Amino acid sequence: MKKNILLSALFLFCLTTQVSFAQTKIDSTEISSAVPELSAFHKIIYPLWHKAYPAKDMVAFKALVPQIQAYMVKINQAKLSGILREKQEQWNNKLKDFNVAAENYYKACDANDESATLLAAEKIHSSYEQMNRVVKPAVKEMDEYHQSLYVIFHKLNPAKQYNEIAKEMDNFITKADAITNYPQEKLTKRLGDKTSAFYANAKELYTATVTLKQVIAEKSSTQIDAALQNVHHLYQKLDALFK
User: Fold this and answer.
1) What distance in Å separates the CA atoms of residue 5 and residue 12, rounded to the nearest whole number?
2) With a threshold of 0.85, does the pTM exceed it?
3) Residue 50 domain flag
């Protein structure tokens, strides 16, 4: 009995990994903002930054070189998911810096130069964080909104599946509302003086999303395109506050 329950739960879990937009058959990986190859690099960052760096342990630094080289090959070959397509240029630019940091690290270790190795380790750590900032959503609520926006903007609207968009609009509006209600104390720590701009922009995005629902009912492709372009622009404007 327990085995059957477990299998049923696993089956349901697998079903939920598919997006609710049934007509588009979007795989969950397409709307994931994660880059597995980059995430895996944390296995290097932890011993490098939290163990070798504080101890100024050159032996440990050198031992990490072949592992870093192997991970960098994978990161350089990584493909961004569909939802991250607009960040490809930012990714490429930060990846160049990451590669330079890694090369400097190899050289410093090879020269047995402690001072240069410490500086190179700092740069690897900061470059890794910059790479993560490119792909990771600013806040969870924005990521959830962006997932719906991606499917509507890049899949449903080009196919003129207006009935499918209409089915998702109440949920889309709920996600927009969640952004406007993000806790201010958490936000202030991250944005400081830009906190008020966040809430002003979030309100704009919410209003535009509500307007989109109204426009969808008209089924005018020109009006829908314009309303979606506005929503897309306002989301990017909000996201830019975290850059």
Assistant:
1) 11
2) no
3) yes
